[in-house]
Write a structure and sequence with these properties.
alpha/beta, Rossmann fold, Immunoglobulin-like, binds 1-deoxynojirimycin
């Protein structure tokens, strides 16, 4: 055994011993082992660790794959530290074997993949999941998705997306948790816990909150577009979910494509080093987005990939996804004195640290068990977990005369619309290995639910092409029925990356179809399927009921049928504001007041001359088949110091006929303050379930951190002053009270 083998052998032994203790927090200290590995590495080997390459698309867990010669060569030469899009136990095992037996230092590879809402068992899109407001469920969803990925060779998912999105034209709103920073931060932490489990033990994988930072603030909602926001908005609105993810133990972060105020994130030292590492003590590593280092050339800030590489590594960006700017240029940049070896060393250490924490040095093949891959993916347990999330994500937007749940006496139901029986669309964006054959559509769900009823189906029209329509069959089906279920909305690929829309109305001839069906005089229950909030004033006015089902994944149809029949009582709450028209965008509940808040009788106030400034449905909104009454709002202390926590209690009574869940929401307003504050800010919530007639006193908490904000000197403080509290069923809650913060000690 030569010296190199000896060192590696002792590292493997040590790290296997550490693995047993991996459950403990904080992380075991691997710095000595990292030193040992580093001592074996040439500068080339180090630069290789910073290089991530894409294996290409289309490799499913069950499909045979062959490894291209180019990839083999790269691994053997130690020129790659990580792959993306290489998935499957067999493929990853083969690639890993080359790395740990034939590469110069035999360092295991890290395999990353976008598991955004499931690998094979497709869960609802993340925006839908956020409407559950249920952190336990979200954590369970993430851990179920992690388990499938783990058993399919995936070490690392590029998720969760924690970008706050206030502009529904931006297609990637579908991938996040909506417009609110507090809720978004809670969800970010829940998803990290679910994906990474207890310090990556068991069947868990590394998370990668993205896109750092403010990617959702793209001008005009156009993907990849310029972002120009103040440091205050950055810190108060866009950064907190990233901080929450880091605090929850996220091991990696992905930087965003956009610039902020003149500096693209990939070369933004303020973001990557000052904030992330120096302020937040992040100990993991940062990966670029796809070619985002190279794209700084198009941004006009780097002359070529070489300059881009220099700026990115010096800013603190550790791993280069697919630009190959590091592998091709860093050595020369070191020789030229533009990049120091210690900068490279630091990035390498961060990557090795994560590889140690994942246990790859003790068992590089722990994710590549082909037998488990054959048995542990796409099972009933995963499907049941998905169904629970899908049901809880449904948002009931309208229910005139309690038309829902459907009367048991109904015998003839017409199920109409381009989305009523479309499987692919229900997978939404990032369907990955989601199996369309396993998707249950709304039509199929209702047919299963009601075997004894007459259910007719008509397509009606295409989603997007106004010419492609067959209204006559749809009208016939409606005329022959007692009630119409109309499934309309967007194509599953109208949201997600690069899928911005200038109009967020329902596309094609679908609204015309709705109007044509109305003339049949039958009640119409609209089931919306969408990846973003939609502007649907005509539907809101004239439909009898509206259930927003988003893109619900493979169990969508079962969840819809359960909700329409009343076997499941809808309880989802919107996490994005629904506007009346695209022209109101951006529209979000936690806006500022302005010096001239909208007043109906004052022309010179902040309004539109052609439409109300109010939304169609506010943030936090969602109905139930039951009703809830809020009463007895009490605030523990009328005066507290800035270091104290206050509690707010409220009695919630289920005044309806169904056992049902409700999300009790608490908002605050700080006024006056040293800087202008939002009209309302969500600061706590609790999801409760009550039987008919049952009451519960819910206690909500306001601690100093929740009450603090960046003051006029940009210090994060809980300044003295009046706090108004609103509690209720959505962001328009009118039950309110006040207390005062008496000092700023
Ligand atoms: C680009 C996307 O912006 C990012 O979200 C994704 O993780 C990477 N591509 C890798 O697929």
């Amino acid at each position: 055994m030569n010296f190199r083998m000896l060192v590696l052998f002792s590292i493997l032994i040590c790290s296997s011993l550490m693995m047993g203790q991996n459950k403990a927090k904080p992380w075991p200290n691997y710095e000595h082992q990292i030193d040992s590995v580093m001592s074996l590495m040439s500068l080339d080997d180090k630069i290789g660790q910073l290089n991530q390459v894409a294996h290409g698309w289309g490799w499913g867990p069950t499909q045979p794959v062959s490894i291209g010669q180019d990839f083999k060569k790269l691994i053997k030469e130690g020129k790659v530290g990580s792959f993306l899009n290489a998935v499957g136990a067999k493929l990853t095992k083969e690639l890993q074997k080359i790395a740990v037996t034939e590469s110069p230092v035999k360092i295991p590879l890290l395999f990353g993949f976008d598991v955004i809402h499931g690998l094979q068992t497709t869960f609802p899109i993340p925006l839908a999941e956020s409407c559950t407001w249920d952190m336990d469920l979200i954590e369970k969803s993430a851990s179920t998705q992690a388990k499938e990925a783990y058993n399919c060779g995936v070490h690392w998912t590029f998720a969760p997306m924690v970008d706050i999105a206030r502009d529904p034209r931006w297609g990637r709103i579908a991938e996040g948790s909506g417009e609110d920073t507090y809720l978004g931060s809670q969800i970010a932490a829940a998803r990290i816990k679910g994906l990474q489990g207890d310090n990556l033990s068991g069947e868990h994988i590394i998370a990668c909150p993205k896109h750092f930072a403010a990617y959702g603030a793209a001008e005009g909602g156009r993907d990849y577009n310029t972002v120009d926001i103040s440091e205050r908005t950055l810190r108060e609105v866009y950064l907190p979910p990233f901080k929450a993810a880091v605090d929850a133990g996220a091991q990696t972060l992905m930087c965003s494509f956009n610039e902020i105020s003149g500096t693209p994130s990939s070369v933004n030292k303020h973001l990557l080093t000052d904030i992330l590492r120096n302020e937040w003590n992040f100990s993991g590593f940062i990966v670029s987005d796809w070619n985002s280092i190279g794209e700084t050339v198009a941004h006009g800030i780097s002359a070529d990939n070489k300059e881009a590489a220099k700026k990115a590594i010096n800013a603190g960006l550790d791993m280069d996804m697919e630009t190959r700017a590091y592998i091709n240029n860093l050595k020369d940049l070191v020789k030229e004195g533009e990049v120091s070896v210690s900068t490279i060393d630091e990035s390498v250490r961060r990557i090795l640290r994560v590889k140690f924490r994942l246990g790859l040095f003790s068992d590089p093949f722990r994710f590549c068990d082909e037998k488990k891959e054959a048995t542990e993916i796409g099972n009933a347990a995963e499907r049941a977990a998905a169904l629970e999330v899908t049901e809880n994500s449904l948002v009931l937007l309208k229910n005139k005369n309690n038309i829902l749940p459907l009367a048991k006496s109904l015998q003839k139901i017409a199920v109409i619309g381009p989305l009523a029986n479309s499987k692919r669309n229900l997978l939404g964006c990032w369907e990955q290995f989601g199996d369309t054959n396993k998707v249950v559509t709304a039509l199929e769900g209702l047919q299963k639910k009601y075997p004894g009823k007459e259910i007719t189906y008509a397509f009606g029209c295409s989603i997007n092409n106004p010419e492609e329509r067959d209204f006559s069959a749809a009208i016939k089906a409606a005329n022959e029925s007692e009630l119409v279920v109309l499934a309309i909305g967007e194509d599953g690929h109208f949201s997600g990356e690069a899928s911005a829309r200038t109009s967020i109305e329902i596309p094609g001839a679908q609204t015309a179809l709705f109007e044509a069906l109305r003339k049949c005089g039958k009640p119409i229950v609209v089931v919306l399927m969408n990846g973003r909030p939609l502007a649907i004033p005509a539907i809101e006015k004239n439909a009898d009921a509206i259930l927003d089902a988003w893109f619900g994944g493979i169990t969508a149809g079962d969840a819809i049928a359960n909700a329409l029949s009343g076997d499941f009582v809808p309880c989802g709450k919107l996490t994005t504001t629904f506007p009346l028209a695209t022209g109101q965008v951006p529209i979000y509940y936690n806006h500022k007041n302005t010096g001239r808040p909208a007043q109906p009788d004052n022309f010179f106030s902040s309004k539109y001359i052609d439409l109300s400034e109010k939304p169609l449905f506010p943030f936090g909104y969602g109905l139930s088949y039951s009703t809830f009454e809020y009463s007895d709002l009490k605030i523990d202390d009328k005066n507290i110091s800035s270091a104290e926590t206050n509690h707010v209690t409220v009695k919630v009574t289920n005044t309806g006929k169904y056992k049902a869940s409700e999300v009790v929401q608490l908002y605050i307003n700080r006024n006056p303050a040293s800087v202008t504050r939002p009209v309302r800010e969500l600061k706590d919530f609790q999801k409760i379930t009550l039987n008919p007639g049952e009451s519960k006193t819910v206690t909500l908490e306001l601690n100093p951190e929740k009450l603090s904000f960046y003051n006029d000197k940009m210090e994060f403080r809980n300044e003295p002053g009046k706090v108004t509290v609103f509690v209720g069923t959505n962001s328009l809650a009118d039950l309110s009270g006040q207390f005062t913060i008496t000092n700023s000690k």
